[in-house]
Structures
1.
Amino acid sequence: MAANNICILKITSTIFAILILSSNFMITPIKSLEFSREVSMEEMGLKTEKLSHLHFYFHDIVRGRYPTAFRVAESAITNSSATRFGFVEIIDDALTLGPNISSKIVGRAQGMYASADLNNLGLLMVLNYVFTEGKFNGSTLSILGRNAVYSDVREMPIVGGSGVFRFARGYARASSHENNMQKNGGAVVEYNVYVFHY
C-alpha cells in the first residue's frame, strides 16, 4: 500500500511538473516569432545621412563581337511596332569613368530593359548598378523607372541599394552621349546620379 502511494505521488508530481513547464512555454512570448519591432538607427549602425553625386558612362552593346545586351523575349508585334513594343533585353553593361569604352571601368549595369510604350520609345528599366571601384566597391544601387530614350535628359528613381548604399534613395539623370545604332545597335549614355545614403 505504501509502495502504491509512493508511485501515485511520483506520477502526480511528474504530471504537475510537466503542466507547470508547459504553461511557462505558453505564457512566455517567443521573440523569434515576432513579425516586426522598432529598431534604433544606432542599432543599425546608421549615422548622418549624406548626399553623393556619381558620374559615369553606360555602354550598351547589342551587336558585334562582344555584346553586353541580349534579347530574351519579344511580343507578337515587336517586329512590326515602331517602338519595338514588347522586347526584353537582359544586360551586363560596363560603367566607365569616361565616354570611351576603354576608360576605367567603375562598375556594371546588370538587369533588364523592355519596350513598354506603344506610341513613343519608352523603356522600363530594372537595373542594379554594381560598383567595383573606390569606397563604393561591392555596393549597388537599384533603378526602377521609365527611360524616354529620345528625350534629351531622362530621370529614373533610385529605389534602394546595398553595402554603402543601404537605405538609398535619389534619382539618376541620363543623357545620350553617343548613339551607336548603326555600329553595334547600342548607345553610350552619360549618367549623373544623386543619392542619399548613410
Note: DSSP finds one helix and nine strands in the chain.
2.
Amino acid sequence: MTFLTRVLLAASLFVAAAAASAQPVRVDNAEAELVAATDAVVPGQPLSVGLLIRHDPHWHTYWRVPGDSGLPTTIAWQLPAGFAAGPLEWPVPKRLPIGPLMNFGYEGELLLPVQVSVPGDVAPGQTVQLKARADWLICKEVCIPGGADLQLALPVRAAAAPSSFAPLFDSARAQVPRPAKLDAASVTIDGARLRLAFRPAAPVTKLEFFPLEESRIEPAAAQALRAEDGGAALYLAAVQPVAAEFTRLRGVLVANGGPGRRPPLPARHRRAAAPRR
C-alpha cells in the first residue's frame, strides 16, 4: 500500500466516522450533540438517531417524570419532507436525592435514542440534514435552564454500517423499560398507603418504582419491599388526597438493579369499613 493510498484511506475513514455526529455544543455544564447509530441514511429503512448529553461531574438532567422538582428534557425536530421522528426513548433513571426532595434523572453520559422513519424515495448520493432544538434543565446545587440548536448531516446510501456510536445506542436501549405482565398483580390504595403486590418469576431482593404520572406517589417517601402471600409487595406513599380518577398505576419497576418493566396495574381503592351501630 502506497503512502498516498494510506492517506486517502485514513481520510475516508475519518469522514465516515464524522458523518455519524456533528460538533458538540457546549452549554454551561453540559455538552450536547446529535448522533446516529449508522454512518448513512438508507431509503425506506428506519434511522436511529439520538440526543447525546455529557454532564459535567455531579450535574444532572431529568427523566420524563422528574420527581419532586425539575423539568424533563425535550426535543423539537426539523426534518426533511417525508421524514418523521418518534418519541424519545428514556432509559431507566437514577434516584437523585436533593435535601428532602427526590428527583429522577441522569448524570454522566446520557443518550436518548429516537427512531426516525425514512421515506423510500430519498435518493442515494445526496446528503440529509437533520435539525433539532433540545431543551433541558441541568442542576447541582442550583438549576440552570439549557438548550441548543443541533444538526446532523448524513449521506444517503444503498447500505449503511454501524457508526462508532452504535454501542451507545445498544447500551441505552437495553435500559429502556419494556412492557411486562406481572403474575397475580394488584394495586390497592388504602388511605395514604399504596400496596403493589405481584408474584415474581424470580427472587426479588431489591425493587424500585418510578411513576409515569405525576401526583400519584410521593417521590421522596421510602419504598418498602416485603415478602407476602407467597409473592412480593411494594409499599409506596400515595399523594394526598387520592384523586378519584386514580384507577390505574402507570410506572416502571426495576428489580434487582436490572432493566425496567412497564406493567399495566389497575388500582383498587379500599373503602373504610362502615361504623358499627
Note: Confidence is low (pLDDT under 50) at residues 1-18, 269-277.
3.
Amino acid sequence: MKPLKILFVCIGNTCRSPMAESVMKHWVKEYDLNWEVDSAGLRLWNVGRKPDERCIKVLEENGLATDHIGRQISPIDFYKYDYILAMDEHNMSELQELAGDPSHQRCAKIELLGKYIERKEDQIIRDPYFSISIGGFRCAFLQITESCQNFIAEHMYAD
C-alpha cells in the first residue's frame, strides 16, 4: 500500500507547522504507520532556518524533537501530498487560491487541521509567534496534539 502523505502549512513554517510535523511524526512512528509527513510555509521568511526557539522548547518539554529546516510550499506539493492541513482560515484561503481550480486532478485534499478538534471554539490554531510568553506555544501544542491523534484515528485504517 502506498504511504499516506501529509503536509502541514502555516504562514512562516517556524511555529505551528513544524510543531505539527514533529507531533505527527511521533505518532506515526508510535503506531508504525506507513505515512510521510512534512511541513512548509506560505512565505519565504524562514526558508533554511530552524523552527522558533519557543517551538523547540515546547516540543522538548513534551519529549519531542525536530530537525526541520524551513521551506516554502511549492506547486508540486498540491500533487505530491494526499492532505495539506492548514492552521487557520487565512492559511486555508491562501492554499485554496494557490491550488487553483478544484476540478483539476490535483491529489491533495486541503483542510483545516483544527477540523479534527472536537470543540468547535478550539478549531483555529492561532499563531503563537507574537505571544509575549511561551503559553501560546503550549496552547498550540495541545490543539495540534489532539488534532493529530484524531486525524490518525480517522485515517489509520482508510485505504
Note: Residues 135-155 form the longest helix (21 residues).
4.
Amino acid sequence: MTIEHAKESAGLRELSSEDRKIIGTDIKEVQFGWPLGMPLVRKLEKDLWEVRSHLEGRIARVLFTVSEGHIVLLHAFIKKAQKIPKSDLVTARSRKAKL
C-alpha cells in the first residue's frame, strides 16, 4: 500500500523532529502491516480509522481512509480530550468526501 496526504497539517510540522519520527514510524507500520487493530489503529466509522501515536506527555492522532490500495492521511492533531473533537471528525470526513 502507498501513503498519500489529502492535505498537509501545519500542526504536525510544528512538532519536534523526534515526535514527527514517532508518528512517521507508526504510519509506516500501518502501511506495511495493513490491516491492523488496537492499540495502534482504531476504526472510528465506515472507511475512517485513526493511527494512535503516543508521544512524550501527549497523544497524536492521524485520521485516514483506505481507497483503491492507498492509505490516504486525512487529518492529524494532538489529542487534548478523551473524545475526538467533532471539528476534527468533520475535517476528516470533508476531505474524505473530496477523494
Note: The longest strand covers residues 58-67.
